[in-house]
Amino acid sequence: MENNGKGIFYGVIGVATLIVAIIGATFAYFTATANDTSTIQGNAATVSLGLTVQKVSHGNKGLVPQLETALSSAMKGVDSAGTGEDSCVDANGNTVCQVYKITVNNSGTGDAKLNGTLVLEKGSVTNLKWATVTGWGTDPVAQGAKGDNNLDTNVTVTGGGNKEYYVVIWIEEQGAAQNDTGNFTGTVTFNAADGKGVTSTFTV
Question: Using one digit for the tens of pLDDT, what is the confidence trace for 119-170?
Fold first, then answer.
């Protein structure tokens, strides 16, 4: 009988040990943790705009009237030898137009959708006009006089990229005596979708 009692006792101890082992294993399973900080990485995109306006045509005198229909030839220009090396300068040495290069750049990492405007403060130069130019440096063509201030609409400038424009400014010839005198200024503005942007002003 004593041996049987010991057998039962050891059996109970064995079952208790097994229960403790199972409980310990269960708690170890639930308290185990793991993490990985390398699977989700990134950064916020940035948009940083810059704007420059640079006069690229020749001629430093005050503007004299010029017909719109002759702008392409005027932008090619003539020099004393007639080889066409002086843009916006006529055969008499007069300045008949001005061509500006406009560059808007985005040094950020995100794309920017922009609206661009060119506003001329004409003063007493009442017949002053402007137009966009294509083919500058080869065969420049004015894209018609602008009746409004819009330079471009909903143009996307990618991160790290830029967009260039060329515009020509001239006094439209009226075929009669004109009183276009004084100075004028121009303001180029590019606004982002949130209304913030960059502005550059040029004065003549």
Answer: 999 999 999 999 999 988 778 999 988 889 999 998 999 889 999 999 999 9
Contacts by 133-136, CB closer than 8 A, 24 or more apart: 133/75, 133/99, 133/166, 133/167, 133/168, 134/166, 136/56, 136/75, 136/99, 136/101, 136/166
Asked whether 72 and 166 are in contact (CB, 8 A), the reply is no
What gap in Å lies between CA 73 and CA 139, rounded to an integer? Answer: 9
C-alpha distances in Å from residue 155, one per residue of 16, 136, 170? 77, 20, 26
Backbone angles phi, psi at 146, to 5 degrees: -90, 125
Contact between residue 96 and residue 131 where contact means Cβ atoms under 8 Å apart: no
Q: Is the pTM of this model over 0.85?
A: no
What is the token pair recorded at 45? 């995109």
Which amino acid is located at 3 in the chain? N
